């Protein structure tokens, strides 16, 4: 019997050894030999709104064997901020495996604020500050203009320099701020008693490209030198409303004041002069014949860019009368004249408020002044030489023609 028991114990031990080996083998099989998925690239990805998501894929292996059948599911919409998942699945025999990639779409881009008008503004002590306006936009949130916070510490009664800060945040808390500089000029020390020079230009050219002998053409480098002089010497640029009140004796203006104008709306004004005006923060006025250069085009291109557009009539810059220089405006009927002028006013008020007309050829008579007044204009400029002074006829005002070739010294004397 003892011998029989020994014979029985041997197979049991062998069986136990087999079981242990199988167990160890199973453990090795399901650990070392498991079906695994390896992601190409990062497991957690962050990309910006509207950027392109590039799927890098994955690879799968069982032991030393590469498994080709990987199913990829899920979608990333980069046009919407949020968190997305891409799922990777693979099967081999009775094994299966899954892996996830997380993609976070975020908005990292700051919104933008565009200031209308000039970023450097001078106002006379006690005069009302009129905010030129601003717009704010975000690539994701769209129009944020109503979310702009203006930090305004301006005191119009206290001379000095002030900074207005415009701030806006988008829904992702990206922030933007821009500044506008305001200088309040002391009234008591700068009272203008010598009159306001309203400078008159027409056309512009670059001496490095062309040469013009006509006095109406101003060489652009000379023009830049003149605008720089005005900026460097802190010349105040009255608005048309301020000039009206100055003529009427309702306000005074700084001693160093000037208004810069150019007639006709020649392409050279847009191509050459406007960049100079903007560079030196000069509020240049273009007197536009609006049948030549329509207000809708000007508005779409130059609205709120710090350039002022006033009337040179709608379509009366041509001959037709014998009086003065023969301009049509001299003898056109009242109704036809008013229609032309109101058309011009309506056309240009797509861009800015219109107060002023520069008469074609500088011609003016009582008929012209009556039409101008009845069409709703407050100021009318001739080509007569002189400065604008209190008490003048507001519909028959002089200007100072700036001739090509004038030295900077003589230019400064005319001011």
Structural commentary:
The protein has helices at about 1-30, 220-230, 240-245, 265-280, 295-300, 335-350, 365-375, 410-415, and strands at about 35-40, 45-50, 60, 65, 70-75, 80-90, 95-105, 110-115, 120-125, 135-140, 140-145, 150, 160-170, 175-185, 200, 205, 215-220, 260-265, 285-290, 310, 355-360, 380-385, 395-400. The chain has about 425 residues and is α/β, with parallel strands linked by helices. It has 4 domains: about 1-30; about 35-105, Immunoglobulins (Immunoglobulin-like), CATH 2.60.40.10; about 110-185, Immunoglobulins (Immunoglobulin-like); about 190-415, Glycoside hydrolase/deacetylase (TIM Barrel, Alpha-Beta Barrel), CATH 3.20.20.370. The protein starts with a helix and ends with a helix.
Rounded to an integer in angstroms, the radius of gyration calculated over CA atoms is 39 Å
What top-tier CATH class of the largest domain fits best?
Alpha Beta
* CATH hierarchy: architecture of the largest domain: Alpha-Beta Barrel
Any idea what the CATH superfamily of the largest domain is called?
Answer: Glycoside hydrolase/deacetylase
Mean pLDDT: 89
> How many beta strands in the DSSP annotation?
23
CATH topology of the largest domain: TIM Barrel
How would you classify the helix and strand content by structural class? alpha/beta
Strand content: 25-35%
Q: Largest beta sheet: what is the strand line-up? A: 20-19-18-15-23-22-21
Number of domains as seen in the coordinates: 4
Cα end-to-end separation? 136 Å
Seen as an oligomer or otherwise, the chain set is: single chain
Give a quick account of the main beta sheet: strands, pairing sense, barrel closure: 7 strands, parallel
Global morphology: elongated
Q: Helical amount among residues, as a percent range?
A: 10-25%
Tally of DSSP helical segments: 8
């Amino acid at each position: 019997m003892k011998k029989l028991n020994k014979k029985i114990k041997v197979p049991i031990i062998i069986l136990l050894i087999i079981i242990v080996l199988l167990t160890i083998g199973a453990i090795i099989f399901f650990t070392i030999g498991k079906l695994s998925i390896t992601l190409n690239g990062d497991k957690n990805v962050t990309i910006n709104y509207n950027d392109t998501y590039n799927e890098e894929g994955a690879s799968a292996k069982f032991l030393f064997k590469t498994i080709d059948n990987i199913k990829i599911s899920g979608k990333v919409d980069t046009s919407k901020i949020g968190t997305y998942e891409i799922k990777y699945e693979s099967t081999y025999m009775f094994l299966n495996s899954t892996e996830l990639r997380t993609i976070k779409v975020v908005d990292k881009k700051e919104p933008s604020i565009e200031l209308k008008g000039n970023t450097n503004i001078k106002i006379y002590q006690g005069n009302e500050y009129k905010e030129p306006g601003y717009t704010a936009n975000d690539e994701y949130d769209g129009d944020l203009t109503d979310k702009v916070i203006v930090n305004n510490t301006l005191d119009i009664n206290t001379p000095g320099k002030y900074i207005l800060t415009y701030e806006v945040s988008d829904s992702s808390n990206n922030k933007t701020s821009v500044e506008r500089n305001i200088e309040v000029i002391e009234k008591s020390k700068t009272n203008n008693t010598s009159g306001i020079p309203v400078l008159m230009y027409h056309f512009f050219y670059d001496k490095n490209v062309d040469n013009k002998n006509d006095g109406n053409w101003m060489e652009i480098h000379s023009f830049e030198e003149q605008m720089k002089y005005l900026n460097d010497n802190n010349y105040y640029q009255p608005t048309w409303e301020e000039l009206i009140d100055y003529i009427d004796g309702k306000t005074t203006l700084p001693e160093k004041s000037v208004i810069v104008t150019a007639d006709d709306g020649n392409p050279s004004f847009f191509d050459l002069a406007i960049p100079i005006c903007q560079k030196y923060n000069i509020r240049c006025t273009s007197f536009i014949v609006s049948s030549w250069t329509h207000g809708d085009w000007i508005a779409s291109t130059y609205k709120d860019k710090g350039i002022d557009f006033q009337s040179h009539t709608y379509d009366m810059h041509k001959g037709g009368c014998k009086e003065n220089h023969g301009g049509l405006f001299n003898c056109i009927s009242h109704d036809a004249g008013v229609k032309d002028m109101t058309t011009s006013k309506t056309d240009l008020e797509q861009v800015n408020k219109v107060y002023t007309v520069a008469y074609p050829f500088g011609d003016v008579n009582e008929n012209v002044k009556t039409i101008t007044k009845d069409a709703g204009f407050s100021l009318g400029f001739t080509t007569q030489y002189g400065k604008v002074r209190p008490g003048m006829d507001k519909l028959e005002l002089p200007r100072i023609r700036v001739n090509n070739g004038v030295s900077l010294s003589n230019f400064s004397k005319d001011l």
